[in-house]
Structures are given as structure tokens and as C-alpha cells.
Automatic annotation (TrEMBL):
GO cellular component: nuclear origin of replication recognition complex
Signal peptide positions on this chain: none
Keywords, sorted A to Z: ATP-binding, DNA replication, DNA-binding, Nucleotide-binding, Nucleus
Record flagged with keyword Metal-binding: no
Entry function: Component of the origin recognition complex (ORC) that binds origins of replication. DNA-binding is ATP-dependent, however specific DNA sequences that define origins of replication have not been identified so far. ORC is required to assemble the pre-replication complex necessary to initiate DNA replication.
Binding partners and assembly: ORC is composed of six subunits.
Organism per entry: Babesia bovis
One Pfam family this sequence matches: AAA_lid_10
GO biological process, one term: DNA replication initiation
Subcellular location: Nucleus
Assigned protein family: Belongs to the ORC1 family.
GO molecular function: ATP binding; DNA replication origin binding
Domain AAA lid: 38-90
Descriptive protein name: Origin recognition complex subunit 1
Length: 228
């Protein structure tokens, strides 16, 4: 919680200067807390509980989100045992809305990256986008949005943005051979972003429809994503 940043300066001045940062919970920690709650443990299948813990760990590690999912699953179960299918449906419901909300407030560079990726996926009808082509589209968008910030559109900045998005779970990076970029090449290279990005594939880990829905709230991006 970032309450101090939302308070008036006169209120903040009366608070201590120290800030306590809570690290994300790990899978075993989330599972242990959920299992210790008798109401949750007695009414949710073990595999469903593990699914909840795993998904929250991969998403944010926020224990409050895990409790929210379990409580909602119990309320929808009508006094029945929560199954894995139930948990999958409820966790999708909770985490998807959270993802959309987070993407709505994404930075301009990240929004450019995601739009460029979505457009590339649409053009190729594949489930993986060529990072080099995405970078070319990204550079054009950033040149329009931030014409005075050259560093933002450099290939090194783009690499850092890719890694950041991958760490956040929005995308994943895979070694991929694109014949249009590397003609005649028959072997995959090491999964490290190469200098020219030609062998790097970008795979969306968030449903593309959710990305479009979130970014389309902004009129600028809505115009570019209108036909998707």
C-alpha cells in the first residue's frame, strides 16, 4: 500500500521516515497460509488450492489476492466443494480484471510494445511475434509519441523493456527461427536476445483480447486497434 504518497504533506511530516516493503509471497508460503484457514482448507479441493497458490505466485505474490480468489470461489460454490475447474474459472475472473486494470495504466513504451506485438500477431496469424519486426513498429510509434527522446527508442532500451515485460509475466521470450529474418537457418539459437533480435520470438502470456480491451480505453490506441 502506498498511503503516504496519497496523503497531504502536513500529514506525511508526522509519520516516521522508514518504509517497510513487503516482498511477494512464494508458492509454499501462500499454500501454507491458505491451508491453515480451516474454512478454506475444508471446502476447497487440494489441487484447486494448489492452483490458486501457483497462479497468484506467478501473477504478483500478493496474499490478499489469493484470499480474495478463495473467498469468491467459496461464495459461488453454494456450499459445495470447490473443484479445480471452479478455481480456474474464478482465478481467471479475478486476475484477468486485475491485468486489464494494470495494463490501462501502463507506460507509453510498454503500451507501444504491446500494440506493436498485437499488430504483428494479427498480420502473421501466428502465436509468436518476431521481436525485430515488433521493434521496428515500436520505434515508429515512439518517434511519434516522444520525438525528443532518442534513448527511449534505442535497441538497448527496447531489450530492457522486453525483459521487464517478461519479468512481469505479460510476455515470454523464446528462441525462434523466422525464415523471413534468417533465411535457410534450420537450428534454434540460444534463448538470449541477440544483437539484432532476429531470432527472438515474443509470446503473449496475457490473452490478446484483454490487452486490446485494456489499451483501447485510450483513444490514441483505440484508433490503432479498432479493427482487432
Amino acid at each position: 500500500m502506498d498511503l503516504p504518497s496519497k496523503m497531504k504533506a502536513s500529514c506525511v511530516s508526522r509519520l516516521a521516515f522508514g518504509t517497510l516493503v513487503f516482498q511477494p509471497y512464494k508458492y509454499q508460503q501462500i499454500l501454507a497460509v491458505l491451508s491453515a484457514n480451516k474454512d478454506i482448507a475444508n471446502n476447497i479441493d487440494d489441487l484447486a488450492l494448489q492452483l490458486c497458490a501457483r497462479r497468484v505466485t506467478n501473477y504478483s505474490g500478493d496474499m490478499r489476492k489469493a484470499m480474495q480468489i478463495c473467498k469468491l470461489a467459496l461464495s459461488l460454490a453454494n456450499n459445495g466443494k470447490v473443484t479445480t475447474a471452479d478455481m480456474n474459472r474464478v482465478s481467471n475472473m479475478v486476475l484477468s480484471s486485475a491485468v486489464i486494470e494494470a495494463l490501462r495504466h501502463s507506460s507509453k513504451p510498454l503500451a507501444c510494445l504491446l500494440v506493436a506485438m498485437v499488430l504483428e500477431l494479427k498480420d502473421t496469424q501466428l502465436n509468436v511475434a518476431c521481436a525485430r519486426k515488433v521493434y521496428d513498429a515500436f520505434r515508429g510509434m515512439m518517434a511519434v509519441l516522444e520525438p525528443d527522446i532518442k534513448a527511449t527508442i534505442s535497441i538497448n532500451s527496447f531489450k530492457k523493456l522486453l525483459v521487464s515485460a517478461a519479468t512481469s509475466g505479460i510476455i515470454s521470450l523464446e528462441p525462434t527461427v523466422f525464415t523471413s529474418v534468417a533465411p535457410g537457418r534450420k537450428v534454434q539459437i540460444d534463448p538470449v536476445i541477440c544483437e539484432e533480435l532476429g531470432d527472438t520470438g515474443i509470446v503473449p502470456e496475457v490473452d490478446v483480447g484483454q490487452i486490446v480491451t485494456a489499451l483501447s480505453r485510450d483513444p490514441f490506441w483505440e484508433q490503432r486497434l479498432r479493427d482487432l
